[in-house]
Amino acid sequence: MGANLVAGGPARSPGILISLVLGFWFARAERGLAPLLAVVALTLTFRCVFETVIAPYYVFPAIAFAFVSLSAASWPRFLTATLLAVVVNSASNFDRHSTWVWWPIVAGLAALVAVSWPKPLPPVSERQGSAEGRGRDLPESASVVATPRR
Questions:
Q1: 132, pLDDT greater than 60
Q2: Which end of the chain is more exposed for a tag (fewer CB within 10 A), N or C?
Q3: Is 107 helix (H, G, I), strand (E, B) or coil?
Q4: Is the pTM here over 0.85, yes or no?
Q5: For the range 52-58, what are the long-range contacts, defined as Cβ-Cβ under 8 Å and sequence gap of 24 or more?
Q6: Cα 15 from Cα 109, distance rounded (Å)
Q7: Nearest to 40 by CA among 17, 22, 59
Q8: Helix axis angle, 33-49 relative to 99-116, nearest 10°?
């Protein structure tokens, strides 16, 4: 191999192992769609962390999944994530990819995943409109009962 060539090979292994561990952890826990999208964004960020050379098409999937997991977030979080995404995407499209460009990209992706991580839901007993609380205020005659047709 020449002096100016870089090989990824074994350096990618930690990212793959971390992604597998996150996948097994997520599969064992009961979680919703937003945390799943955030975990996917995190695993794609780990790809960039352990990649020897960053191309723009390595960065954008992490940005895209982070934005999808932000779909129900507040405006300040969304605007912060937008600013981070623009900076990270611009840095990844910079022509001179050196160590000094890699660090801001990885730090920006980590900050983007942190900002887009969904907030934990309160316990079911504290949520308004929970399945337990629905229909409690209705009179007995207001309940709908399906009757079979003959």
A1: no
A2: C
A3: helix
A4: no
A5: 52/6, 52/7, 52/8, 52/11, 53/6, 53/8, 53/97, 54/92, 54/97, 54/101, 54/102, 54/105, 55/92, 56/89, 56/92, 56/93, 58/92
A6: 15
A7: 22
A8: 170
